[in-house]
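Per reviewer request, we include the raw input and output of the structure prediction for the construct analysed in the revised manuscript.
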Amino acid sequence: MSEQSFHLVCPHCRATNRVPAARLSAAPKCGKCGQPLLTASPHELNAQTANKVIQKNDVLTIVDFWASWCQPCIMMAPEFKSAASQLPQVVFVKVQTDKYEQAAAPYNIRSLPTMVAFRNGKEVARQSGALPSHQIIQWVQSLQS
C-alpha cells in the first residue's frame, strides 16, 4: 500500500509538486525551483495563478478575496498574515478582486473581505467580514478536523 501524497502548487514558480503526507511537516521544497512550498506567509495570486492554486492544491488553502479600496480588507491584511504564520501547513493566498475581477468571478464573491477555504479544488467553507487573527486561526482549525 502506498503512502498518501498531496499536490502542492509552488508559490514561487507555480509548478505542481507531489509531496508525501509524512513530509508536509518537514518544510518540503519545490522540485523545480528549490524554494519552500509551505511558507507560513500569504502569497498574492493573479488571475492566471489563482485558479491553478485553488484547483491543484490538495491541502487546505485559504483564499482572502480583497480590494484595495476596502478599508476592512486593509485592516484585516496583517491579521491574515499573522494567522498564516501560525498555521504553516495551510496555504494562505490573497486575490485582489479590483485588479483581477475574472479571478474572483467564478467564486461568487459578494462582499469583501471574504475568505474561502478550498481542499482538493472544492470549496469547503467561507467567511465574510474582517476578523482578528485568533478568529481566523479558530476558523481554519475547525476546518482541519
